[in-house]
Every structure is written in C-alpha cells, then in structure tokens.
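Appendix B. Extra example for self-study. Work through it before the problem class; the solution is given directly after the inputs so you can check yourself.
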Amino acid sequence: MKITLLVIGKTDAGYFVDAITEYQKRLEHYIPFDIQIIPDLKNTKSLTVEQQKEKEGELILKSIQPGDYIVLLDEKGKEYTSAQFASYIEKKTHTVSKRLVFIIGGPYGFSQDIYNKANEKLTLSRMTFSHQMVRLIFVEQLYRAMTILNNEPYHHE
Ligand SMILES: C[S@@+](CC[C@H](N)C(=O)[O-])C[C@H]1O[C@@H](n2cnc3c(N)ncnc32)[C@H](O)[C@@H]1O
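Solution. Structure tokens for the complete assembly:
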C-alpha cells in the first residue's frame, strides 16, 4: 500500500514547507508516501464559493486513480486518538492494495461530488484548521502512527 496526501495549491509559507519536508523525510523510512499537489485555481474572484468547490472537485477527480481508497480530511469526519489512528493505518495495509489517498479540501471545503466519491471522512479535531496547517498536522500524525506501530519512543500515552 502507498499513502498519498492530495492537496490543493502549493504550501505557501516557508515555515510550513520546512516542517512538512522534515516529516516527509522521516516517513520515507517507514512507508511509501507522497504529497500530490493540485495547482490552485486561477481567477477565483469571478467564481462563487459553489463554483470554486465544483472546479476544485473536478481537478480532484482527475487525480484519483482506479482502486484508490479515498479518505477526506474533514472536520465532520470520524475522530481517532493517535493510537487508534496507528491501528487504522495498520488495518488499511491489509485491506488496501493500491493507494490510500487522504484529501485536504480547498478554502471552502469539498464539493458534493467529492463527498459522494469518498470512502470515509476523518477529522483531526472538531476545530477547523487552515488547509495549509492541516498538511503539517496530518504528516506529523502519520509519522506518529508509524512510530507507534514500530514501538519507538516518540509517542507517550
Ligand atoms: C479551511 S478548511 C475548510 C473548512 C470549511 N468549514 C468548509 O468545509 O467549508 C480547508 C480544509 O482543511 C481540512 N480541515 C480543516 N480542519 C480540519 C480538521 N479539523 N480535520 C480534518 N481536516 C480539516 C479539510 O480538508 C477542509 O476541507
């Protein structure tokens, strides 16, 4: 199984880039993982919120491959502790043969088409984070999950 984090738009702030790159490097040791970036939409000022979500949704759909297992990162999704998330990932390694794809929505979230396409929704907190911030929190939690599964002294209950 390979894990992909699908996001919209480049990470703009350098401090996020550095931190995300650090966890991405650490993850190389444990599991095939990449971050796939869908370019930001242009001229969004002329679009309504619904139109922007729909257009982003079309680009997301183009990036999905047959056999992908799709998990939306969404404030209204299922909530796990870090230990539970580690066992979730472990179970997925047995059931997902191709890509386990986590998707972060754009500034206004996901279109209905994307909700319909998804297998699951996962929340990192009931609070809302910026789509840039979620990338960092997700890679850190994935790294934490890997250290838990490998009995390494990073996570403390
Ligand atoms: C700024 S948020 C958009 C939130 C907004 N409530 C909406 O859905 O219209 C951008 C994206 O970040 C992700 N996100 C933000 N907070 C999150 C959380 N607590 N857990 C999981 N994903 C989150 C989601 O993918 C969301 O679509």
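Self-check: The chain has a mean pLDDT of 96. If your reasoning did not lead you there, revisit section 3.
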